Amino acid sequence: MQIDGAVALVTGANRGLGQRISEQLVSRGAKVYGAARRPGSVTTPGVIPVHVDVTDADSVAAAAAATGDVTLLVNNAGMASSATLLTGPMDEVRATMESHFFGTLSVTRAFAPQLIANAPGAVLNVVSVLSWLHPQVLGAYAAAKTALWAQSDAIREEFAPHGVAVTALHIGFMDTDMIADLDTVKTDPGIIAAMAVDGVERGVIEVLTDEMTREAKAALSRERIAGAENTFEAWL
Fold this sequence. Notes:
By secondary structure, the chain is an alpha/beta fold. The chain has helices at about 15-25, 55-65, 90-115, 140-160, 190-200, 210-220, and strands spanning about 5-10, 30-35, 45-50, 70-75, 120-125, 165-170, 205-210. It has one domain: NAD(P)-binding Rossmann-like Domain (Rossmann fold). It contains six helices and seven strands, in the order E-H-E-E-H-E-H-E-H-E-H-E-H. The protein has a seven-stranded parallel sheet with strand order 3-2-1-4-5-6-7, with helices on both faces. Helix 4 (about 140-160) links the parallel strand 5 and strand 6. The chain starts with 6 loop residues before the first strand and ends in a 17-residue tail after the last helix.
């Protein structure tokens, strides 16, 4: 889709990748609604603040009712979690799935009518390399992102007859506050934002942002080779 003249709504637009994607969209001529739980924290010039808590259906419905002109939906909002699946707090496991899977689905369902009505349009889902790598230390997060990957594929088929494309953005380590304490090589979120918007503009199915992500995707289609080089910890 053409970004110049598009109307985008970006969830989690107040910081990190969501802020960088908003900046990219504005710089390329899009009108941008910046959605966040605290609209006052959305400070990017040219971005229109909108209240959205993706886990609150009423706020999602209100945002959809207050717009009507959206042609690009960017599902970026989510929560960090280091809960393991066997011993982590069950409330945190549920909250992680609620944020990444059900929250994203809730926003997409709410905005689907206007995306279809205003087609051609697009959805960008921010997924993760952890949709393909499932370390036990990040079990809840990996499970939620894997579910989001499946959601992205399924809604792509549903949207296809209506002229709405779906792009999944897969990211390894990114230099944001979510993994600020992790000592490893991280990609600048501004670079990832540019790649993401380029991918939407080209209508690609997936954007793989780094070598770790490309290797993880490639490993899905070949026999797994035993050894430390294939473990999550080897990337740290």
